[in-house]
Predict the structure.
Amino acid sequence: MWKHILVKLAWKSSKSISVGSNSSPNNNNNANANAICLDKSDKSNSKVISPSSVLPTDTESTSNYTQIMESQQLFLKKLDLCCITCDFSDRAKDYSEDKEFKRQALIEVVELLTSCNEQLTEPMIIALCRMFSINLFRVFPPKIRSKPGPTGGAEMEEDDPVFDPSWFHLQVVYDLLLKFVTSSLVDAKIARKYMDNSFVSKLLDLFDSEDPRERDCLKTILHRIYGKFMSHRPFIRKEVSNIFYRFVFETERHNGIAELLEVFGSVISGFAKPLKEEHKVFLWKALIPLHKPKVVGTYLPQLTYCVMQFIEKEPKLASTVIRGLLKYWPVTNSQKEMMFLGELEEVLESTEMAEFQKCMVPLFRRLAQCLNSSHFQVAERALFLSNNDHLVNMISQNRQVILPLIYPALERNARWHWNRSVLNVTMNVRKMFFEMDENLLLACESSFIEEEEKKAATEERRRLIWERLENCTVDGTSTRSSAFSPGIGPELGFVVLPPVTPAAPLVA
């Protein structure tokens, strides 16, 4: 009976309730909806809310200050209702009244914060941060890597997203958090006391969520926090670096690496020139090692963007990036090798001549191995680097060093590669070098022929030596005595030592 009376009273006195303004109809409707939701929440909340704490009297409505205080109390009561946790593990109870009451309360808080035109007080900021912590910060269930079975099962598909059943509540909380961080009514000096390092660290832990919708919201919020709270910037960079370290060197499993890199892409673009030493250390120790994991393809575009931002800020870092790529270059993963070749071309496009000369020898030794890859796509992708005009120009100016490194690989492709497309592109590249420097190409060709003849002679001598050893074994002669015949040891590539005679016993 009391509830129906309170609801009617709420409708009559709703015009006297506003958040910072007593003339806005939207604020009146919000306050009216707040009173109704408080009334409904009594069914699911054990707290008893007195009518005087929700509905203003005639005496209170005469004072603007009293109205503001009453609205603040209403706002705090509404936040208390939003702190009630609901169980979403049972899918059969997804549409229970308690969950719907809480969701309506969350929506009303968002509307109140949107329509508010007064500075938020410290108690309101404290209550908001407490509500964010209770609703958002949680421990994720362990990741199931394989299905149970007699043989152990296979790994789960990485592309299958997992959607959180509580998302229709979490989404409103994230909207409220974004409005809180971006609102001009929130004093940053007060807010940073409660959105401290612990709060930010727990927020970063949420990037491991398997729900892509949650990670997308976190990406926007983290960017806004980084921009608003300048004192938190070093801590955020340190914590993100630690996440990258754990991912690369320990777990190799994290769901939010791409989103974190996307945030840091805009952060790096705002670094001042010249770059600080700590930023260069972040590039070498945090970003470059991200090329190591097998799942680098899931975040490679974002990683490449971050790396290119560093090179644009300081072109001298190009040689550092190229050496890092060579350090983590894949050996047995052809798909990953093609990704590296694509990123390498983008880096070389922005590389200056001085930096190119610092790393061109190890770089083209690696490219020569790619040219001879039995995987035709890898060989073809490496050959297509010759279509880059900037790279061809740098090769032309350093052809005396580069051409002897890659010509043997081109010649082997022309003679023995199985794929017709690779063979055709190889001939085009050879023609390009022939037009670039005919004399140098002919010198490399003669040197290659000479090396191949030496290699063939060595292989033939080795074959004959092993044949002699096999014949000695078949004939029953001593293999040991034959092995010590002159010339056999050096031909096989090892040094033959004479037999060791036992030492004479010591006489006391």
